[in-house]
Amino acid sequence: MDTREFYAALLIVVFGALTIGGLMAANLMAGNETGFLYAFAASAVAWGCAPAVLFDRPRIYLGLLVVCILLIAASIISFL
Predict the structure, then answer these.
(1) CB–CB of 41/71 below 8 Å?
(2) CA dist 62 → 18, 19, 45, 54, 66 (Å)
């Protein structure tokens, strides 16, 4: 496994599944549908970051990462 493949897999597993999955679960338990949808969109964008790393596209990766961070912030704000 190449270094880029390792980091791409790490992005999908840690950032996309564990962190944002926990945020989705917290919003579901609180009954916050809007926050859940923001977190769901963030997980989809985080999943899209992995191919950008794999195919060496740093600008696409940066743009997707910024969108993901904004969606996570929106989910947290709607949770509060």
Answers:
(1) yes
(2) 21, 19, 11, 13, 6
pLDDT tens for each residue of 11-38: 777 777 777 888 889 999 999 999 999 9
The whole-model pTM stands at 0.80
User: HSE-up of 40 (CA within 13 Å, CB side)?
Assistant: 9
**Residue 32, domain extent:** 3-79
Q: If 0-12 CB within 10 Å is exposed, 13-18 middle and 19+ buried, where does residue 44 land?
A: middle
Distance CA 80, CA 78 (A): 5
Number of separate domains in the chain: 1
Cα–Cα distance measured from residue 16 to residue 39, given in angstroms and rounded to the nearest whole number: 10
Q: Do 71 and 39 contact (CB within 8 A), yes or no?
A: yes
